[in-house]
Amino acid sequence: MAPMVQGKESTMKAMRFHEFGGPEVLSYEDVPRPAPNFGEALVRVKAASLNRIDIWVEKGGYYKPSLPHIPGSDAAGIVEEVKASDAADASLVGRKVIVYPTLACFHCKYCIEGSHNLCASYKTLGAQVDGSYAEYVTVPVKNLIGMPPNLKFEEAAALPLTFTTAYHMLVDRAKAQPNETVLVLGAGAGVGVAAVQIAALLGAKVIATSSSEEKLRKAQRIGADVTVNYSEEGWADEVMAATNNKGVDVIIDHIGAETFTKGIRCLAKNGRLVSCGVTSGNEATINIRELFMAQRSILGSVSGTMKDFLAVTRLAAENKIRPVLDSVYRLREARKAQERLLSRQSFGKIVLVP
Ligand SMILES: [Zn+2]
Description:
354 residues; 7-stranded mixed β-sheet; globular; 12 helices; 2 domains; Rossmann fold; 29% helix; single chain
């Protein structure tokens, strides 16, 4: 390999923002290439995927990273450099990897219990620290696992956050069972696509909602048994009709305010609504009597554990689940890519490549 031109290796291209706002604040810049600290690897990003969290980080409400900031939680790439005394870690150089986006301490009470997503010093790549909308990103070596050889970089980058989140919701939180019915609200979003596939794999009957007939057809192709257009007033009645008015056992909800109240009413006795997002707003009203009389549960869920991440990566390696790509943009087109995410026209993941 030819030696790098002095000076060139110290910078990289990245999409970053200097003020909070919408996609328009992103700018394609030459920035200092990050250097790994001890225990970290420098990964050459071959693909990064978009998530709703990127939009929240950019807005600067709940997350307020120091500026300027590079967003992006999901990455697949090649290890360029490792800073560690461990020979096994050093041997990662040159390996294709995907990144577990939860930056946990691995030694607090929650981490020891395996709940890395509840870590006392919980951070997400790209939220509090610079992320993957760049040619290079530094991440703890502990957060890397080998990329399944059957996946392209674009698919591998589409796997971590949404599939790990959906797996945690269905398996760890809702404990969905093979004979149960799972309602996935907003099945075209990244988490929705992942939840439809994982619920179908668990053997559940899957009802998927989305806002267009085209997206519903796509949801059917990845495992939805019944589809319901939620842009129509009577969507909750349609869901009830699909269950002979018994209701669904599990609801996967990343939409929040817009669907929450009607969603809870679609729950069967002992039904569980699992919430992982608030795309449409934070607040909703519920009827408490209806909740306890039917022994329904509302469960919060955030990201997923390292174990969940390993589980979905294994399922992808075995071709049991497959990331669905909506579109691929160049890194410099990240604004356009985010506008597509916000348009709610996408089905599956939007990916950036350098
Ligand atoms: Zn911890």
